[in-house]
Amino acid sequence: AQTVTQSQPEMSVQEAETVTLSCTYDTSESDYYLFWYKQPPSRQMILVIRQEAYKQQNATENRFSVNFQKAAKSFSLKISDSQLGDAAMYFCAYRVINTGTASKLTFGTGTRLQVTL
Amino acid sequence: NAGVTQTPKFQVLKTGQSMTLQCAQDMNHEYMSWYRQDPGMGLRLIHYSVGAGITDQGEVPNGYNVSRSTTEDFPLRLLSAAPSQTSVYFCASSPRQGRYGYTFGSGTRLTVV
Questions:
Q1: What share of chain B is helix, strand, coil (3-state, %, to 5)?
Q2: Residues lower than pLDDT 70 in chain B
Q3: Residue B73 Cα, gap to closest chain A Cα (Å)
Q4: Please, which residues have CB within 8 angstroms of residue B67's CB and are 6 or more apart in sequence?
Q5: Is A95's CB within 8 Å of B106's CB?
Q6: Whole-number Cα distances in Å, B54 to A13, A25, A108, B33, B49
Q7: Positive or negative CA dihedral for A56, A40, A106, B54?
Q8: Which of B90, B100, B99, B105 is nearest to B25 (CA)?
Q9: Which of A86 and A1 is assigned the larger pLDDT?
Q10: Which residues pair with B73 in a beta bridge?
């Protein structure tokens, strides 16, 4: 079974600084997708960034980027120039490509990010 | 475009009562899922569907039923509510292509007393 591990329950960063959230996963699949979701206090789940496992290039979305290490099964999220609005719970998630099980999205337990002035 | 609509947003039930959480999507997505979110445990999959008429169990299916008679709707039924089912419930949908991830509803906070 696939598992996703986020070992940092809470993180804190000062406004305008950079923070990295860690995620590791366990899978026997070779093709899959990885995602980071943000959940602000409003409770809404917001997709932040995605990475296809067959792509070597790390995904980037404005101030958000990932460090994808396939051999190490690691998928960390870097937030640059942190803003107060980045304060939220962040979830790492995994999804296989094969059609038979592609419907399942497996989540880590989340990292709560606090942004301070 | 409304996306994924969940109702109600809040609900209090007494132990033993039954109820249905409604979920509808207007994006013609094949896949739909129900998750529950509990502190320190992330989101856990309850049931999922890969198309109308097809459903399957997820990680924590006990005490819940689902059906999918149309592409748009995927209701979750609590058969006999228990305090252990106090949680936040999310419905989500996705196209068949996995790269798009899932689009989530705004969630239902359910309290069973």
A1: 5, 50, 45
A2: 1
A3: 16
A4: B55, B75
A5: no
A6: 45, 29, 27, 12, 6
A7: negative
A8: B105
A9: A86
A10: B24
